[in-house]
Specification:
The complex is a heterodimer of chains A (about 350) and B (about 250). Chain A is built from 15 helices and four strands. By secondary structure, chain A is mostly helical. The radius of gyration of chain A is 22 Å and the shape is globular. Chain B is α/β, with parallel strands linked by helices. Chain B has two domains: about 180 residues, Rossmann fold (3-Layer(aba) Sandwich), CATH 3.40.50.300; about 60 residues, no CATH class. Chain B has nine helices and ten strands. In chain B, the strands form two sheets. A six-stranded mixed sheet of chain B has the order 6-7-8-3-9-10, with helices on both faces. In chain B, strands 2-1-4-5 form a four-stranded antiparallel sheet, covered by helices on one side. In chain B, helix 3 runs parallel beside helix 5, helix 4 crosses helix 5 and helix 6 packs parallel to helix 7. The radius of gyration of chain B is 18 Å and the shape is globular. The two termini of chain B are about 30 Å apart. The chains are: A mainly alpha (about 350), B alpha/beta (about 250). At the A-B interface, helix 1, helix 8, helix 9 and strand 4 of A face helix 2, helix 3, helix 4 and helix 5 of B.
């Protein structure tokens, strides 16, 4: 490396003086202010509206968290999993088990994230032996295995599930508000985590791995390590989401919590919102949530329509709706790239 | 062989077969620190596979790869890059959704272990010397072929290598572009970088390297000064009696 510095040393000092690299997009200051305002409004919502509104929004926040975690896994790590319900389930059951041990259920939610990381380490060792389609199917099988193991444990209710202990002392309004804030915190935490993860040096490496894996290792990137990190982050996020689902529904059912439907939701949201953009799952979750509310009464037609929208987006809008917005307006809420000033567009 | 402890790169009797095709047969080759070596040979001679075994993308069936006095046969590609082996790919493999600057920056971060402003400066300086500075903010997916080839070189340099592996970087370039490239490589060589360059555009090699190796059937056919290798009877026969194309550019070689 000393060789490189000799002749280039002289050039460098001149270039360095002039070099100006920016991390933010043009629109980011006003959009950051707008986002803070939205967050403040959302945080104050339990004081302003009836609890049925905040209860419904809990579902939206869970969807945002789950979709963000799937996006970081598949859209940045290139790990297309259909088995993240394994961690939703493990997270949910962690909260049930910890509450049985006397841990305050709301405090058990972040602990559920830790439990999931502990389970994800050995699971990754198994799952990472598979690639591409096999990885996708393998993760699903692993999730099923976890479900089958859980229904054999009588202490957590076996096949019929179990109720959550430790929240009965709380007033119902208070409980609703607390659950809402925990869910909001979860959604914010996953978005902030994605942003910080992708903005750093590891994030740039991940995007390189996503684009070209072989070239990424020639660039000096430890591809396996980078993938393990996103896998663990995603497991933690999905686990905390599973915990929030449990404190919101006050019980857990193994078939529902380990259902592959969660993966279907995550994939649908990320595909319509825009895979590989932090904003994608946010936009996608809003649309999915809106469709759920509008079409809830139409039974199976609702699912048919969702499927049609998903297929249409995948065919005609490979960058999702956020990709479209970005191409048209150049808007970026969470700028993670680098812009060299004075070097043209 | 006698000095593979001080050699920059030493391949010790490496062998690699794909079914019945042999891409390396007890191949031994040494590159000294700061040496510029050219590799020629007909298509299918095992040139690109040789690079893959040096960079770690491909594992030899037998034999050992030494780099900087250390046995690296079992070292994964990313660790070899960090140790100082920088490579380009014959068919460019850019990170398409990253900008040109980010493509090189990630190499400066991970390959050269640079941080912050140091990494930015190194990346930008690498772009300056490969003529890509004005395209710094363009997504790499939008680059034309020639620019992609330059980006391959910029990324390899971005990792801060001691040994640079160039895989047909001159293929498809116009004559003035080839000369420009020759100047860039010469300057890198003058700065003390070890270079191994596979190329069908032989005249570019002759202008740049001090030593040339001809590969065929996974074996070294000739190893000498460039003009003597090109004059070698066995080498001329390999090229259908006409000798390697020493004329102007053409032949992109696939």
């Amino acid at each position: 490396m000393t060789d490189r510095m000799t002749l280039s040393g002289m050039l460098t000092s001149r270039a360095a003086a002039a070099l100006d690299v920016s991390r933010a997009a043009r629109s980011s200051k006003p959009s950051a202010a707008a986002m803070l305002a939205v967050v403040a409004l959302l945080a104050a919502l339990p004081f302003m509206v009836f609890s049925n509104v905040t209860d419904t929004l809990v579902n939206l926040f869970v969807l945002i968290a789950l979709a963000s975690m799937w996006n970081v896994l598949a859209g940045f790590g290139g790990l297309v999993s259909v088995g993240q319900q394994a961690y939703i389930g493990i997270g949910a059951y962690s909260v049930i088990a910890l509450a049985d041990q006397g841990v305050q259920p709301y405090l058990a939610v972040p602990l559920a994230a830790v439990t999931c990381v502990i389970f994800a380490v050995p699971t990754s060792w198994l799952a990472f032996r598979l690639r591409g389609d096999y990885f996708a199917v393998g993760t699903w099988v692993i999730a099923e295995v976890y479900r089958l193991l859980v229904v054999r444990i009588d202490a957590v209710g076996g096949g019929s599930g179990k109720g959550l202990a430790g929240l009965s002392g709380l007033d119902q309004t208070m409980r609703g508000a607390l659950t809402y804030w925990v869910a909001l915190a979860l959604a914010l935490a996953t978005i902030v985590a994605c942003y910080l993860l992708l903005r750093g040096r590891l994030g740039l490496s991940l995007m390189a791995v996503r684009d070209e894996e072989t070239a990424a290792s020639s660039a000096g990137i430890d591809v396996r390590w980078a993938k393990l990190v996103v896998y663990l982050v995603s497991a933690a996020g999905c686990g905390a989401a599973g915990g929030v689902i449990t404190v919101s529904s006050l019980s857990v059912n193994p078939d529902a919590i380990f259902s592959v439907q969660w993966s279907a939701y995550m994939i649908f949201i990320v595909v319509i919102g825009g895979i590989g953009h932090i904003e994608g799952p946010l936009l996608g979750a809003l649309i999915f949530f809106g469709l759920q509310q509008l079409l809830a009464d139409y039974g199976s037609w609702y699912l048919v329509l969702l499927g049609a929208i998903g297929i249409a987006t995948a065919l005609w809008l490979p960058g999702g709706l956020w990709g479209l917005v970005r191409d048209r307006t150049g808007l970026s809420l969470f700028p993670v790239g680098y812009f060299v000033r004075g070097r043209g567009a | 062989m006698e000095r593979h402890q001080d050699a920059l790169l030493h391949l010790d009797e490496i062998t690699k077969r794909f079914g019945r095709v042999t891409v390396a047969k007890d191949l031994t080759l040494t590159v000294r620190p700061g040496e510029a070596l050219g590799i020629v040979g007909p298509n299918g001679a095992g040139k690109s596979s040789l690079f893959a075994m040096i960079s770690g993308d491909l594992r030899p069936d037998g034999g050992a790869v030494w780099f900087g006095g250390r046995k690296v046969t079992d070292v994964p590609p990313h660790a070899r890059t960090r140790a100082g082996i920088g490579r380009t790919y014959q068919v460019p493999r850019p990170f398409e959704h990253l900008t040109v600057f980010e493509n090189v920056l990630v190499c400066a971060h991970q390959g050269a272990a640079l941080k912050g402003r140091q990494a930015w400066t190194h990346a930008m300086e690498t772009l300056e010397r490969t003529g890509l500075a004005d395209l710094a903010n363009i997504p790499a997916g939008r680059l034309a072929l020639l620019q992609r080839k330059r980006l391959e070189m910029a990324r390899a340099l971005g990792t801060g290598p001691r040994l640079l592996l160039l895989d047909e970087v001159a293929g498809g370039l116009t004559e003035p572009e080839v000369l420009e490239l020759v100047e860039v490589v010469k300057r890198l060589h003058a700065e003390g970088l070890g270079i191994v360059w596979i190329e069908h555009v032989v005249h570019a090699l002759v202008k740049t390297v001090g030593r040339m190796v001809c590969l065929a059937g996974g074996d070294v056919i000739a190893d000498d000064e460039p003009m003597r290798v090109l004059a070698d009877q066995k080498v001329r026969e390999l090229y259908l009696g006409g000798g390697p194309e020493t004329g102007l550019t053409d032949e992109e070689g696939t």
